[in-house]
Write a structure and sequence with these properties.
The complex is a heterodimer. Chain A is an alpha+beta fold. Helices cover 28% and strands 15% of the residues of chain A. In chain A, strands 4-3-2-1-5 form a five-stranded antiparallel sheet. Chain A starts with 28 loop residues before the first helix and ends with a strand. In chain A, 42% of the residues are buried. In chain B, the strands form two sheets. In chain B, strands 1-4 form a two-stranded parallel ribbon. Chain B has a two-stranded parallel ribbon with strand order 2-3. In chain B, α3 (53-65) crosses α4 (67-75) and α4 packs across α5. Chain B is globular. The N and C termini of chain B lie far apart (54 Å). Chains A and B meet through α1, α2, α3, α4 and α5 of A and α1, α2, α7, α8 and α9 of B. β4 of chain A pairs parallel with β3 (156-161) of chain B, so a sheet runs across the interface.
């Protein structure tokens, strides 16, 4: 299963190009529209953040697309999957005029919705691990319910020893929620890894990496 | 699951030029009444004029100036942010992590582009780049060098890879020579990159 989005730790990336301080701008005018359109359409509430991430990850052209190209392609695919837009409308580049849908994200909803956000913590099972516990991550990094499905364990951290440093309580579980299988909350932890346990030749043996991982990704060490 | 044929994907029906495909999708969604153009403008206006790194800077400056606030921020960042009226989407579960002489914190999202929007606004392009996502976890010091940052001897790097809905705010070390400065003046030293961990704050008098 190729997971092109799972690129952490890959060797041979380009130089990172810093940007001026302050509010980030757009590299092209259409990026502005892509951002606004994606957030406004997200306000329809027709898909979850996990479904949106999964839709971007499974784009066949993911490795060749730029950031906002992925957003727009995934948005078009989701709109069709959810029955909101027809393929014929995409092909025509237009649609019959209709009044504003009652589901649409309207201007007066914007400020309260953006400042409230959408918490992902839920009531759920008591944590099995305590801060300080030693754990080992699942190997391989893969969705246990849907073959080739969405998961948030990066491949660079599969089968690695780590230690619990934060316990966040139950959170919505992406491996299920991304596939319409319900929120299935699981305890979420921040796990600390030694760079020396992740990489054969770490830049510095004292460096560390943390990951936020759900309980079913972890086994007692 | 994965589509083997990109041309089966609905998006391939849109024009191939990115600007034209965005325009076409916008036309469709607005005509169908699924997107309110006024809502779209309100969202963009929020992140172009009101929500950005100046908000994170207020939090950092208060943590520098007010020891009790710093303790509350490190214990429960969202509650502390609310004291300053700061909350919102992509910042529902914030953890503040503090730099010290021994530990430098740096934030990445290797799987996508998770970022604390209510504190820092829209992520800069480099944060979302393949280069940063690939390299930050394996060679953070080489990435820091791209930003002109060299850590002192004896400082370890801790890279926080945001793989869930927890968002991280780096609290940089307070610059020397700022004793007695008020919060507003301190905030002028706090850069966006210093709150991601790819930079230091400005120096006093710089």
């Amino acid at each position: 299963m190729s997971r092109p989005h799972d690129m952490g730790g890959q060797v041979g990336g380009d130089r990172v190009k810093p940007a001026p301080d302050g509010i980030a701008g757009y590299d092209a005018p259409w990026h502005r529209t892509a951002l606004g359109l994606t957030l406004a359409a997200g306000g329809l509430g027709a898909w979850t953040i996990d479904e949106a991430r999964a839709a971007r990850e499974r784009l066949a052209d993911y490795p060749r697309m730029t950031y906002y190209e992925k957003w727009i392609a995934a948005l078009a695919n989701l709109l069709v999957e959810k029955g909101l837009v027809a393929r014929a409308e995409l092909a025509a580049g237009t649609a019959d005029a209709a009044p504003l849908s009652s589901r649409a994200f309207t201007a007066e909803k914007v400020a309260p919705a953006l400042s409230r956000g959408t918490p992902y913590s839920r009531p759920g099972p008591a944590p099995r691990f305590a801060v300080g516990d030693r754990v080992t991550t699942r190997h391989p990094a893969a969705n246990a319910f849907v073959a080739g499905g969405h998961t948030r364990l990066p491949a660079y951290a599969e089968g690695k020893p780590g230690r619990v440093i934060l316990s966040h309580g139950p959170h919505v579980f992406p491996d299920r929620n991304a596939h319409g299988l319900g929120e299935a909350p699981e305890p979420l932890y921040t796990i600390l890894f030694r760079a020396a346990d992740l990489w054969k030749t770490p830049e510095n043996p004292d460096d560390e990496v943390t990951l936020d991982l759900w309980e079913s990704y972890l086994a007692p060490a | 699951m994965p589509h083997d044929h990109p041309h089966d994907e609905p998006h391939s029906l849109l024009p191939s030029d990115p600007a034209l495909r965005v325009k076409a999708l916008q036309t469709i969604l607005v005509r169908k009444g699924l997107v309110d153009p006024a809502a779209m403008e309100a969202i963009l206006d929020t992140y172009e004029t009101r929500v950005g790194p100046h908000l994170g800077a207020k939090v950092v400056a208060r943590a520098w100036a007010d020891a009790a606030f710093r303790v509350r921020l490190l214990a429960d960042a969202n509650a502390a942010m609310l004291e300053l009226g700061i909350s919102g989407r992509q910042g529902e579960h914030v953890v503040a992590v503090e730099n010290s002489a021994h530990q430098h914190n740096m934030v990445v999202c290797t799987l996508c582009s998770c970022y604390p929007w209510p504190l820092l606004g829209i992520p800069p392009a480099w944060y979302k780049s393949d280069a940063y996502r690939k390299r930050a976890v394996r060679e953070p010091r080489a990435v820091l060098a791209d930003f002109g940052v060299t850590l002192p001897e004896g400082t370890a790097v801790r890279v926080w890879d945001s793989t869930a809905e927890v968002r991280y705010l780096v609290i940089p070390q307070r610059p020397r020579g700022t004793e007695g400065w008020d919060e507003a003046r301190l905030a002028t030293l706090v850069t966006r990159d210093s709150m991601i961990g790819t930079g230091f704050p400005r120096e006093a008098g710089a």
